[in-house]
């Protein structure tokens, strides 16, 4: 910090070209930005690593956050709903942290939800089988929707509390489970800042439909078996719910035109299947692909 050289030494690389160093900063070191300069003279190359030196200040208060109601939250096409989010500051010496600045950041984004005890079924969007193993979790990131963050400001009251009301309404064109994270940064009169976060889930419906393929691969003109269930958010099977399954396949078919030349013509294999759910066992939806391509259910 402030251009002061604290220490200088040499280190020998191991057989893998790596090294490990440790150093201790003086007790009276200046606060601010610091850096470590690494240099390899034989290779005429160098790099710099940066760090910060800050004074530790023992916190004078603790923070927490919560939301209400704690019952499950559901979207509704016409009715507005809301959640009250609260943060609280308490002094370690006793009493409440009143008149402290509060900066709220509320960030909603879509998420994956799977009812309890139903880990063998897929709910919501699923990544393709080969894509999952080839690209790890990149497809989940691509499917995720992050909505714009909203910020709010205020001050804690004489009980160390501050609240905001988060309203939500309507249903997306493609209903998705949404997680809402509310982060509160509370700053006291000594400019100490501490953060606390609470989150809640908004379900797009009271029921979830899950499916699983008996096999991840099928063959053209051979029946593909699928198990389907409808559950509530606790994983309980729901009876007598109409399930519509759309199977969409796209591919190219080799044909011969009027001149005798080989051409490839785009073809589709779209199927719509319906069945009623059961509260006893999964129901079966079987379809026969007419193309040797990737299908979407």
UniProtKB/TrEMBL annotation:
Query: Matching InterPro entries, A to Z?
Result: YfhM-like (IPR051802)
Domain of life from the UniProt record: Eukaryota
Any idea what this protein is called?
Uncharacterized protein
Organism encoding this protein: Didymodactylos carnosus
